[in-house]
Amino acid sequence: MTPERVRRIVPFGIVRFAVAVIFATVMWVSAPALHAFAGAPPATRQEARGCMSVADATQAAYQNKDVCVSAHVYEVVELSNGTRFLDVCPADLPDDQCRFTFVSLSTDRGDVGDLRKYRDQEVQVRGVIRTTHGRMGIVISHVRQFSGGPEKFRPNPKLLRDFNGQSDRMPVRDPNLASSGRHRSFMNPSDKEEQPAQKH
Fold it and tell me: pLDDT tens across 9-22, in order?
């Protein structure tokens, strides 16, 4: 083999070798992360993409959807019966324009823990968006919802007990329970939700 041919082949071989080493290194470093990401539950992958804002969460398209919502907690309100609210609307925003809240029932206190630590903090909460008293909200039933985990599974055999389709009475008790102190009107049970007129 002539020296000129060697000079032409060797640089090309070195380039190929370097490319192969770089590719192998990248794959070796990123493979565990890719594997973990691919095997992660949907909530974790969603959290990696980022949570939606409160403004987005108030859109009707997200009702009854399991999502992650990012919000600033301005106040933590506790009612006399132990029901707690995370107020995510600034104090100068009128009640009728506060369209989203997080609520935690007293029965879940042991699984949720102390919510006062979230006052004046940014939170990311996963849960199913539901509508109550004309606003969207997420029920916080377990502390894992703050780290992308699901709500607590709660079968409710009493849901349809004594339910009559001809009655105006709700099949379950309204979660907007007795209020104490001064806070937003939707946290007060005296604020009755208007029912749409029935067509005959």
Answer: 445 555 455 545 45
